[in-house]
Specification:
It is built from 15 helices and twelve strands. The chain has 393 residues and is an alpha/beta fold.
Amino acid sequence: MVREIAINIYLAFFSFFFNIFKIFPVQRKIVFCISFVENAEFIYKQLIKNIPDARIVLINDNIGCFSYFRKNSSNNDTVLLLKPKKLLLFLRSIYHLATAKVIILDNYFGFLSAVTFRKEVKKVQIWHAAGAIKKFGLKDPSIKHRSKKANKRFQHVYNQFENIIVGSKKMEYVFMEAFGAKPSQFIYSGIPRTDIFFDEAMKMKIIQDLSLTYPSIKDKKILLYAPTFRDDQLDKYQLPIDIPLLKENLGENYLLILKLHPAIKTNIDIETYKDFVLNLSNYKKINDLLFITDYLITDYSSIPFEFSFLQKPMIFFPYDLEEYTKKRGMWEPYEGMVPGPVVHSTEEIVNTIINNSFRVKEIQEFHQEWNTFSIGNSSSNLSALIIDWVDNK
């Protein structure tokens, strides 16, 4: 009840100022409203290359993303934080959203349920993943516990996704189910952040930079453990992998990199295992880490969809599969969907690696099915469309 009241106050505040700012004319301006770095960065770089005189505003709804673009954006572009506590930045964000010609979104943003954009404004949802294992949106099992008003609000948000980019017909189906979208809304541009997998010079530079920054990765076989964030883990997270057992069985030729949610407080004594464990949970771009990874260990994350570009082994460690499936739901039966061995203990992880028990052919099929349209030109494809929108009188 208290949460609903707070949401309603926030939306009323947002709507009030949005409608005031709509008095001003629509400007030749591209506004990003984002929660993640990578897709937005690839599009942003392509836009400033192809249309250098365009006004671009980067509105971020978290500090990490905000800090990144404050550091890495063009000097002429505006970077803002969409947080009511930062009132001036918040009001400026609303102003830019109300007066933009093109709006680029990469997540669910609640304010979309309370505003109406002018007809000439174009909106595109770029999302933040190339594929999906767990359900979300209208198919999230938790929807049955929401009020009718909350569900109506969610649908209003999804209705604002006028255009949606996809990398495959598989993901088109997921979005149709999750957002109630129609085939006419989809743009088959591919996923911008996957362009990096076709840029050999950039990949080599990333590997070299990581090797200089983290010397412990040199001459090691890298295991990347990147599990899905669970809502109840922030203050009581227990790493499900047995670090001593993993180290004892794999030896000094291996290094385990942890990529957990940056807000998680782990129970791991990193100092004790500093020769075997490297915690890079605060590292912003997970695709960078994929280039140095020999074995990916994950569960319900979307990372496998991009790791499949590299055709390297994956191990799936859904230690809470039954419980998680009931709580979140899967788009398909889990074991038939993932392109790798499914294990339930550290011992099984070790045995899989030692025995080289991977499913290489399935990785290739998985990649072709989910990354059909992502062939290295996704950023330029979408950039060309956005430029056409912003210059269309």
